[in-house]
Structure formats: structure tokens, C-alpha cells
Design a protein that fits this description.
Elements: H1 2-22, E1 51-52, E2 57-58, H2 67-75, H3 95-109
Antiparallel strand pairs: 1-2
């Protein structure tokens, strides 16, 4: 009889504990990062790799991810005021620069680089290049 009461009590405990867990709501999901933000305004994307997927250039020269580099590009006169990026990295004005950086990626990885993420200016090829 003691064993039967013990087993019944154990089964009851399992049911009660199981029900308590079912009534809990899951923890809230983290809000996704806003990919539309400009990297120069401290966008939280990974800068540890060799390639900046967001802007289509090596991280070490990305003038949109590194404010110090941006200041240097501006001081050197290498800045596209129309698109707010280094002129030497302005794919809208100079599509050939995108091809140059893509060739660097391809030489390193043996495949084409991913298209820049969230950077709509990089693909605006519908206007005349700067002089």
C-alpha cells in the first residue's frame, strides 16, 4: 500500500510540475539589428573578419565602418559628398571600384564576394560619374 501511495504521489508531482512549466511564456526575443543604419553611426555588425559584407570592401579599408578612416579619407580629399563615402569606395559613381574590390575577394577566397548588404547606394549606377 505504501508503494502504491508513493507512486501515485510521484505521478501527481510530475503532472503538477509539468503544468507549471507549460504556463510560462517564453523569454522575449532580442530585437533584430537595423540593417538600414549607416555603419559610420556605430552599426553593430561584426568587424572581425577580413571582408565587410555590408559595404563590399576589406574591413581594414572600410571608410564607412571606421570613423578614423573616414576622417583620413576626407582629409586626403578622397570623399564622395553626394553619397557620403570615400570616393575610392563609391560604387555608385565608380562601378569599376566594386569590380576591383571583388577581384581582391575572389583572389583570396576563389569565389565572388557577397553583394553588399543594406547599402543601397553601392548599387545606384544610374547617374554620371564624378569628374
Amino acid at each position: 500500500m505504501f508503494t502504491r501511495v508513493f507512486v501515485t504521489f510521484g505521478a501527481l508531482v510530475v503532472v503538477v510540475v509539468g503544468q507549471a512549466g507549460c504556463n510560462q511564456s517564453p523569454p522575449p526575443a532580442a530585437a533584430p539589428a537595423d540593417p538600414a543604419k549607416n555603419a559610420s553611426s556605430d552599426v553593430a555588425h561584426n568587424h572581425e573578419g577580413w571582408w565587410c559584407n555590408e559595404h563590399g570592401v576589406p574591413e581594414e579599408v572600410c571608410g564607412l565602418c571606421d570613423k578614423k578612416l573616414a576622417a583620413k579619407f576626407k582629409a586626403d580629399g578622397d570623399w564622395c559628398k553626394e553619397h557620403d563615402r570615400p570616393e575610392s569606395q563609391c560604387f555608385a559613381c565608380h562601378p569599376e571600384y566594386e569590380a576591383k574590390f571583388a577581384a581582391q575577394y575572389e583572389a583570396k577566397y576563389g569565389k565572388q564576394p557577397p553583394k553588399p548588404e543594406g547599402d543601397r547606394v553601392a548599387h545606384e549606377h544610374d547617374h554620371r560619374p564624378h569628374s
